[in-house]
Amino acid sequence: MTAFRLSPVFATLALAATLGACGQQQPAPEQTPAAAPATAPAATPAAAPAGAPRAVASPRDTARASLAGHMVMVDYGRPFMRGRAIMGGLVPYGQVWRTGANAATTLVTARDISISGTRIPAGTYTLYTLPGERDWQLIVNRQTGQWGTEYKQEQDLARIPLRMERTAAPVEQFTIQLQPSGTGLNLVMEWENTRLVAPVQPAA
After folding, report:
1. Rounded to whole angstroms, how far apart are CA atoms 26 and 82?
2. 3-state DSSP assignment of residue 18
3. Over the stretch 132-189, which tens digit does the pLDDT of each residue have?
4. Which of 19, 29, 85, 116 has the most CB atoms less than 10 A away?
5. What is the 8-class DSSP label of residue 46?
6. Contact residues for 188 (Cβ-Cβ < 8 A; gap 6+)
């Protein structure tokens, strides 16, 4: 069989074309710009533990008032009765209650205050209560930012008696108010047929 030979001219042209193709720079792949960092979510009092009820069932609310020119605020969850027995049932007597729902109920005061004669320095606190059939106590606790059922007694700043009354009509949704009263305020909590009151004054 006769061997096929390229002519020198054709071989030179073929080699040049091959080298040109190899040396041609390929376009760089399009670079995808780095994603902008997501905006940080709004701060929340506490992360819900697994199995916690949805917050929509107990929306957050805030009671605010000015005391001697300084802000006092209570942030809390507002559960509904929804046909349930509340006092002595959903809220057992003799056990510390989160005083609301979901994340812990938070008290913020921009100045030193007095609650029923007990001095509370300016700052942020968690409010719990200790329910009783005939008397209640307000618990001011130094731990903050936790889920409402996380209670540490060693962090208590004070336990303060609450005046207990009966509401004129059932209150479907748990409510906290800071009502003006003379030179101070009344901290008022209402749910079902129970009304709890504590006077709040500027600390001397």
Report:
1. 69
2. helix
3. 999 999 999 999 999 999 999 999 999 999 999 999 999 999 999 999 999 999 999 9
4. 116
5. -
6. 175, 176, 177, 178, 179, 195, 196, 197
Locus of tokens 């731990």: 143
Query: Residue length, the chain?
Result: 204
Global model pTM greater than 0.70: yes
> Assign residue 9 a region: left if phi > 0, alpha if psi is -120 to 50, beta otherwise?
alpha
At 91, the amino acid letter reads V
DSSP strand E in 103-146: where? Answer: 105-109, 113-115, 118-120, 123-130, 136-141
Q: What tokens does 53 get?
A: 């009820």
Q: For residue 143, what are the contacts with CB-CB under 8 A and spacing of at least 6?
A: 126, 150, 152, 155
